[in-house]
Amino acid sequence: MIWEVFRQDQAGEYHTHCGNVHAPDRDMALMFAEIQHGRRKPTNSLWVVPQKEIGEVDTEDAKFGGTTDKSYRWAQSYSFEAAAEEVAESESEQVQAEAERQRGDD
């Protein structure tokens, strides 16, 4: 039986796939995974999963993110130039208004 092995470098990090082992049961798979994938690099934990139990959803099966336009969630989709021009115009209007108020007070 083939077991896929996922390794975590440090606590709190994601487990990443690092390979597989051939073993008749989970205990042997854990032992083989520790020997083959856990002893050469710093390892916090290992997961072993039967290869047959891993499912996959790819772009042929599903549309990731749905069909709704959600570009507003990403800062790259915003145009800041118009807003920057508006702020500059507003500041100059405020400076002008303040100058006119001061002339009226004199």
List the helices and strands and how they pair.
Layout: E1 2-8, E2 16-22, H1 26-38, E3 45-50, H2 81-105
Corresponding CATH superfamily of the largest domain: Phenylacetic acid degradation B
Strand content: 15-25%
For the record, the count of structural domains works out to: 2
- Helical coverage, percent range: 25-40%
How would you describe this structure to a colleague?
The chain is α+β, with helices and mostly antiparallel strands. It has two domains: 2-53, Roll (Ubiquitin-like (UB roll)), CATH 3.10.20.520; 71-105. It has two helices and three strands, in the order ββαβα. The termini are far apart.
Which key phrases capture this entry?
alpha+beta, Ubiquitin-like (UB roll), 2 domains, 3 strands, 36% helix
